[in-house]
Structures are given as structure tokens and as C-alpha cells.
Amino acid sequence: MEDIQQNPLPTASQAQQPGCLLLISAVFGLYQIIFAFRVLHFSEIFTGSPVIPVPVHSILSALWGIILLWGVVLVARKKRSALPYMSWSIIAFVVYSLLRTIVFTQSDYDQGRLPFLIIITVAGLAIPVISLLSREKQRLD
User: Over the range 34-68, which residues count as b (16 or more CB within 10 Å of their CB) and which as e?
Assistant: First the structure.
């Protein structure tokens, strides 16, 4: 046991691991792909909403699913651009989702939840933003 050296600071290769971003990107991407099929399959539920037509809703969900899952593919191919791509795509997706919720909120219940959703969104953005900042800091060092 005395021979094992413990290094509390991650090495450059450990710091480049996708970790949490890979999980978030995969989960969001799969959810969006599944949601796109659910919108098409249960279109009668979504036709009551005059705000976003069913085909547009499904296409947007499928596109976000593809964009987010592409980050997983980049990690699998061990591309250097995978981590920044996943970080920026997660940030864009979360901001898009929040803006869509704010713009298309119709019921009083949803309007009452907006402050909570904004706080959770800002907290959720911390993970990819911190990842981008730490990667940039390592690049500059």
C-alpha cells in the first residue's frame, strides 16, 4: 500500500473524460427521439394544442435527439471536438427548452411554475458550463 502514490489532481487525460456530459447528452438525446415518436403516435393528444403543429413538434424533437446523440458518436470515435460539442449542444438544448416553455406557456399552473423552471435551468446549465470553462483553463495552462 505504501508504493501507491495518490494524486489528488486529475491528469490531462482524466480531465478530458466525457463523464457526466456523455450521460446527459445520451439521456436527453434518447428522450427526444422517443418523444418524437410519441408525438406522432399519439398525435390526437397534441392536436388540441394550436401553438405547435404535430409535425413541427415531432421534427424538432427528432432533430434535437440527433444533435445530442451525435455527441455520443463523437465520443465513441474519440474525436477531440466531442466534449465542446456536447457542452454547447446541451447548453443550446436547455436554453431552447426553457425559451419554448416560456413562450408557449398557456395555463395558470404552468405560468406559476416558470420561476422554478428558470432556477432549475440555470442550475442545470452549471454542469456543461463548468466543463467548458475547466477545459478552456486546462488548454490555456
Answer: ebbeebbeeeeeeeeeeeeebeebbebbbebbebb
